[in-house]
Design goal:
- By secondary structure, the chain is α/β, with parallel strands linked by helices.
- The chain has 2 domains: 5-72, Ribosomal Protein L25, Chain P (Beta Barrel), CATH 2.40.240; 78-246, SPOUT methyltransferase, trefoil knot domain (Alpha/beta knot).
- It is 33% helix and 25% strand.
- The chain contains 6 helices and 12 strands.
- It has helices at residues 23-32, 91-102, 121-141, 156-163, 203-211, 226-246, and strands at residues 5-7, 18-21, 40-44, 49-59, 62-66, 69-72, 78-85, 106-110, 149-150, 168-172, 189-195, 215-217.
- The two termini are 38 Å apart.
Length: 247
């Protein structure tokens, strides 16, 4: 049976110590997952550290684990950042879920010109809460000890400024002639990829990103959904990075 993962703050855990799981995660573990005494679980802090051990105490909406193992997952040399144009319906959660499972480090919502969904100031916090909750659950499901950051949404001009700070930014576009697989990836630093909305990127957006240093690339022979394009791009970037690392 797969040992479940829960998220909680960890204060420099040591072997043999006890770690408590309280709050929403504790209530979920006890009341929903029905974790029992003696069952082995993982508790991760979402930033790369996790502990594993048997449950030695159960209470109302909380439990305690005796630490048998402490794991530290270091950050990789490349930090992958997905810029996701706001999609309609449940495709936002699909994109966040899949990107998290595949190992993305940060997700940036972007209000593209052709985005059907519009995040008014009143909707921003609600949208971010939903995306962050999806990322947390996907991290637990995929047994990731690092939960990706879901940043505040950026405008097109703000994205252009961020492009200048990355080691590489690729702009996914179906009319591009250069395949992503043909790029030389940096060995370290921030690699960002920009995913357009259902209606596609406008010429002005492509020009803005290209002028800022983004490389417009093709990732498939067909037009992909906005909820899957970023996942395909991330998988290709990770494969290229692994190939280059092997030499």
């Amino acid at each position: 049976m797969t040992e479940p993962v829960f998220l909680s703050y960890l204060d420099d855990p040591a072997l043999g110590s006890r770690v408590e799981l309280t709050g929403d995660e504790g209530r979920h573990a006890v009341s929903v997952r029905r974790i029992r005494l003696g069952e082995v679980i993982w508790i991760a802090d979402g930033a790369g550290t996790a502990v594993r051990g048997p449950v030695v105490e159960l209470g109302k909406g909380k439990l305690a684990v005796e630490v048998d193992e402490v794991v530290h997952t270091p950050a990789g040399p490349i930090r992958y950042v997905a810029v996701q144009a706001l999609p309609k319906g449940d495709r936002a959660e699909q994109a966040v879920d899949l990107l998290t499972e595949l190992g993305v480090d940060e997700i940036v919502p972007w209000q593209a010109e052709r985005s059907v969904v519009k995040w008014t100031p009143e909707r921003v916090e609600r949208g971010l809460t939903r995306w962050r909750a999806t990322a947390r659950e996907a991290a637990k499901q995929s047994r990731r000890f690092r939960v990706p950051i879901v940043s505040a949404p950026l405008t097109t001009d703000e994205l252009a400024l961020r492009i200048k700070q990355t080691a590489l930014t690729v702009v996914l576009h179906e009319t591009a002639t250069e395949p992503l697989a043909g790029l030389d990836l940096p060995g370290s630093g921030e690699v960002m990829f920009i995913v357009g909305p259902e209606g596609g990127l406008t010429d002005a957006e492509v020009e803005t990103f290209a002028s800022a240093g983004g490389q417009v690339v093709l990732i498939a022979d067909t037009v992909l959904r906005t909820s899957t394009a970023g996942v395909v791009a991330l998988a290709q970037l990770q494969a290229l990075s692994a190939r280059d690392a092997r030499g």
